[in-house]
Amino acid sequence: MKNTRNFREILITFVIKASGYSAIFFVTLIFYFLLSQGLPTFTEVPLNSLFNIRWYPIEEYYGILPLITGSIVVTIGATLIAVPFGIGTAIFLAEIAPRWLREVLKPIIEVLAGLPSVVLGFLGIVLLSSYLRTLFNLPTGLSAFTGSLLLGAISIPTIVSVAEDALDAVPKEYRDGALALGGTRWQTIWTVILPAARSGVLTAVMLGIARSIGETMTVMMVTGNAPVLAKSLRVFLSPVRTMTATIAAEMGEVANGSTHYHVLFFIGIVLFVLSLIVNVIASSYVYRTTQRSEKLLS
Amino acid sequence: MNSSETNYQKRKITEKVGVLGLTAVTVLTVVPIFFVVGYIIVQGAPAISWEFISGFPGDGMKSGGIFPAIVGTFYLTIGTAIFSVPLGIGAAIYLSEYATDNTFTRLIRVSIINLAGIPSVVYGLFGLGLFVLFLNFGTSILAGSLTLSIMTLPIIISTAEEALRAVPQSFRVVSQSLGGTKWQTIRKVVLPQALPGIITGIILGLERAAGETAPILFTVAAFFLPRLPSSPFDATMALPYHLFVISTQVPGMPVKIQFGTALVLLVFTLSMNLIAAVIRYRARAKRQW
Amino acid sequence: MRRLPVLKRNIIRSLGICFLFAAFLFAGCRSTDADSSGGTGPAQETYLENKGSDTIVNLALAWAEKYQELHSEIRISVTGGGSGTGIASLINNTVDIANASRQIKPEEIENAQANGVEPIEIVIARDAIAVIIHPDNPINELTIEQISAIYTGEITNWRQLGGEDRPIVRLSRETNSGTHVYFLENVLRMGEKDSDLLFSMDTLLLPSSEGIIQEVAHNPNAIGYDGLGYVTDEVKVVGVATEFGGEYVLPSVATVNSGTYPIARELYMYTNGQPEGVLAEYMDWIYSDEAQTIVAELGFVPVSQP
Fold this sequence. Notes:
The complex is a heterotrimer.
Chain A: H1 2-38, H2 40-44, H3 47-50, E1 55-56, E2 61-62, H4 65-96, H5 99-114, H6 117-136, H7 144-168, H8 172-180, H9 185-196, H10 198-214, H11 217-222, H12 243-250, H13 259-284, H14 292-297
Antiparallel strand pairs in A: 1-2
Helix pairs in contact in A: 1-13, 4-7, 4-10, 5-7, 6-7, 7-10, 8-9, 10-13, 12-13
Chain B: H1 3-44, H2 50-54, E1 57-58, E2 63-64, H3 67-98, H4 103-117, H5 120-134, H6 141-166, H7 169-177, H8 182-211, H9 214-217, H10 239-248, H11 255-286
Antiparallel strand pairs in B: 1-2
Chain C: H1 3-29, E1 46-52, H2 54-70, E2 74-79, H3 83-91, E3 97-100, H4 106-114, E4 119-133, E5 141-143, H5 144-152, E6 169-173, H6 178-188, E7 204-206, H7 209-218, E8 222-227, E9 236-237, E10 239-241, H8 253-258, E11 264-272, H9 277-285, H10 289-297
Helix pairs in contact in C: 3-4
C-alpha cells in the first residue's frame, strides 16, 4: 500500500508540475503561431509599403502606420480620462470615505468592470455618438474621442482596484506621523501617501493602459474605423482605425495563407509585443505586502 | 494673527477644496454606472418575458426569443471551465506549493503575465489559425472553448495561487508533522481552506469568458442556427455575438429587443459577480485563521 | 462529505483530458467537405451552411426560415461577415453556400481551385445600391461623377454641390463587403478597369449596413450607400444620373429591371461544384414564386430562373 501511495504521489506531482509548465507552453505556442503566420509578411510585402500611410488591403495597400497611430491615439485619450478619475476615486476610497461607504462603492465599481464591451459599444452607438457630435459640433460622433471615453470608462475599475490596494497598504504610521506634524489630510495624501504608494499606482495605470490597447469591440463600433494617420492633435476628434478593430473586421474575409492573412497576423504580433511591453513594465513595479492576498480576496 | 495662522487657513481651504474635488471625481465615476445600468434595465425590461428567454428568434431576428444564444453562451462557459479549471488549479498548486524560486518559476510567472495581457482579439486570431483551420475543428464550440480557456487560464491561476498562499503555513506544517505526504496535505488541508478563493477566481474568469466577443467571432459564433448545437463540433449562437449582430446588422431591429438582449447579458455577468462576492463574504466570516 | 469537491475535481480533470484526447482523434475523422448532400447529422436530417454577404444575410435568413417550414428535415444555418468572408469560407471548404454581393475575383477562383474547390455562380436576386443622405439635406440629385468626386475626397463640403456649408462625412461598408467592392469599381472608378482611384482616407468604414443607416439618419453631414433593402424612411435617397443633363433616377424594382438606375447589381450564391441532391432542391426553390416574393418584400429585385 505504501508503494501505491508513493506511485500516486509521484504521478500527481508530475501532473501538477505539467500544469505549472503549461503556462509557458501556451505562451510559446501562441507566440510561435503568430510568428509563423505573420512573418511571411516580410517576404510578401516590401518594407516601404508595409510602413506606408495607406491601409486598403483589397487593393494591396498594406500600410499599417495609420492603424498603429489609431491604437495609440485612442489609448492615450483613454488614459488621459481614466487616470484622473481612476486615481481620484481610489484616493477617495482609501483615504476619505468612511469604511461603510467604501464597502458599498467598491462592488458598484466592479459592476463597471463586468459590463461586456459589446454593451458599452452598443450604448456608444445608440446614445453617445450623436450626443457628442452635437455637443462639440463635430462632423461625426464616431471618433477617437468617443472611443477614448468608453475605453477610459472600461479601464477605470482596473485602475481603481489596484491603486486603492496600493494606497491602503501604506502603513498607518506614515499617516499618523504626517498628521501629528500638523499636516492636513490633503497635504498628507499628496506629500506622503501617494509617493509611498507610487509603484502600486503606476502599476495600476499601466494595467489600465494595457486594457485600453487590447479592447476590440467597443472601438470597432464607435471609432468609425477610418484608417486616418495621426498628423496633428486634431486627430483626437476624428475617426480612427485601431489595430484591434482591423483584425476583428477583416479576419473573417481572408483566405487561409493569403498575403492579407499574413499581414493581419503581423498586426497581431505588433499587438502582442506592445501589450507584452506594457505588462512587463507593470509587473516590474509590482509590490508585495503580506496583506496583499487578503486584499484581493476581499 | 501671524503667518502661521494664515498658512493654516490656506491649507485648510486647500484641504476642503481638495476633498471636495475628490468627492466630485468619485461621484462622476460612480453615478454614470447607475445611469447606464438603469437605462438598460428600463429599456430592456419590456422585452423580457418567458418567450423571450425560451424562444427562438423569428422574423429575421426581429421577434421571438434569444434562447439559442443563451444556451450557446452556457455551453461555451462549461466548455471553458472543463479545460481551464483543472489546468489552472493544477498550475496554481504548483506555483504555491511546489515551485522554488528559480529561473523556471520566473519564466512561468512571466508567461502568466503575458497570457493575461494578450488582447482578446489576438486570442481570436490564434484560435482561428490553430483550432479552426490548422487542427480542422472548424467553427465549433470546441474551438471556441479552447480559445476562451487559454484566455481564462491566467485569471484562474493568479487568483487560485493567491488563495492557496493565504492559507497559513502552520496548517501545512501540522499536517505533515502528523504524517501526511505533500499531496495529502494539499488535498485534505490546504485546498479545502483555499476553495472559496479559488471558486471566486473561477467565477470571475468564467464571467469574463462569457462576456467576450472577439475571441468567439471567428472560432464559434454563428448568426442564425435553426437548431441547438448537438455536438462540440457544431457552431453556436452566443449572447455577446448576438447583441453585436442585432445592434449592427439587422435593419429595423426593434430597440427593445436590443436592450432586452443587453439586459440578459448584463444580468448574467452581474449575477456571477454577486455569487462571487457572496462566496467571498461568507468565506471571510468562516475563515479559520 | 469533504472528499467530494476534491474527488469531483479529479474526475473533471480526467474527463477533460479524455475529452481533449477524443477531440483530437475526431479531428482527423471529421468531414470537412461540405458535401452537396448536406453535412453530418442524423439520417433523416441534412444540414446546409450558408455564409457571406451582409447585404444578403437577411434575405438568406428569410429564405432559410421559409424553407424549413416547408421541409422540416432540412436545416439551414445563416451567418454574415461580408462577401469576402463567405468566399473565403468557400475556398477553405467550410460552407455549402457562399453569399456574395459581388462577383468572385479571379485570384479567389485561383485560390479555390488550388484547394480543390470549383466555385459555381448562381444569380439569386438583383439589388440597387441607394445613395443616401440626411432627410434635411437640401440636395436631391447627384451624378455618378459627383458621387465619385465626393468619395475620393475631391469634394469636401456640401456647399460645393449647392447645399449647406457643412463638411461631408463619407460612410462606407468595410472592405470585406461585396457592396463596398462593387461601389469602388462601378461608382468611384466609374466602371473603368484601369482606374486606381481609391476611397478618401477619412471615409468611415462601418462594420454593417445598419450602422450606416443609423449614422446617416442622425448626422446632417453624412452621405452613405447601402443596398436598397436596408434603406428605411429615416434617410433620404438621392436620384442618380449617369452624367450631367441625364435623367436622375431613383432606385426601385422597376428602374433596376429596366436598366435605367445606374447603380444596380446582381446578388450571387456560390457553391462548390454544381449543386446536387438536397442543395440542388434548395437552389431550385430559390427561383420559385414564394421565394422571389420574399425577395421583393425585403426590397430586392426578383429574378427568374435563367
